[in-house]
Amino acid sequence: MEFILWNRENFDKIYNCTGINVDDIPIEKRRYPITAIICILLGFIYYPLYFPCIYSFWKNKAKNPCYILLIYLSIMDICLLWVPTFAAGIFSLNGVVYCSSPFLTYFVGCNIFLFWAPECSADLILGINRCLEIAFPNISKKLFHNNRVYFWLIFCSLYGFYWLLFRHAVIFNGINFVFAYDPLNGYKPSRIEFFEQDLIEITLHNYILAIGSPIIYILFAFCLIFKFRALSNKITKEEILVFIQVFIISMLNSTCGIISSYVDKNPDNRFNLQMVGHFSWIHVHGAPPVIYLLLNKTVRNDTKNIFKIIHNKISPSNGSNMLG
Description:
Keywords: Membrane, Transmembrane, Transmembrane helix
Number of strands: 2
Strand order of the largest sheet: 1-2
CATH class: Mainly Alpha
Low-confidence stretches: none
Helix content: over 70%
InterPro entries: 7TM_GPCR_serpentine_rcpt_Srt
Transmembrane segments: 32-55, 67-91, 103-128, 149-166, 207-228, 240-263, 275-295
Pfam family, one: 7TM_GPCR_Srt
């Protein structure tokens, strides 16, 4: 939203559709129906899985600050998952480009960084929290316990608003099935000069994520190796599994960040790589509940309890109907 708020003249240069005829590129070349349907189906699969996970995190949030971080991450994922699944799928089925639906595509684009940036930073903070909790619990208590975790979440949210207010949005382009900075890509020659600062900052963001996560886990892995004998009686199986969950999610984020940085810098690259980037983005926000349900015993048990409650509420009514 940078240029809407602070520099309207440049906004009109970048987002001006005057002289653009959307149908210069036939709708058949702007639609990918099979890919779009797969994206929409993934949205319907992933979304319901989040709700038992959030219920479990909320139920256990008093036990450890990591559950509050997990609630925040889940909310960010829920707020963003609809973009690469439902929005991208519907846009593609209708052959949408910026000039065919400027307000809607711009609105969707603004939502991406508003939630992507805090999700990534909170993911990094969760990794630090888990590592400290296992290796240096006293430091973890000073940094995250007694509601101090909320200061970290405020920082993450402010970081998201920075991207919303001061950077360009990425706009869906049906020609390449990609979200890119240049809204007129495919209709005008590349205008990368307008987005140089954005590319520098998003590349820096993604590389910090891609490099920072492995460094954090490698350093604490060494700490655990040297301190394992002293800590072996204190580290529970549940803590180790939570550590593994956070590690897997962080690596998904890192991989997606590297791919998206390359795609942003090379908007005319091969379609297959763009597809890899897009589906990795979907799984970054959709796979966490699958990981929680597979590896987190607490989440699994709470989910079973939810289904038992639902079953018990349904069963008596069915029985009374049959007797009647």
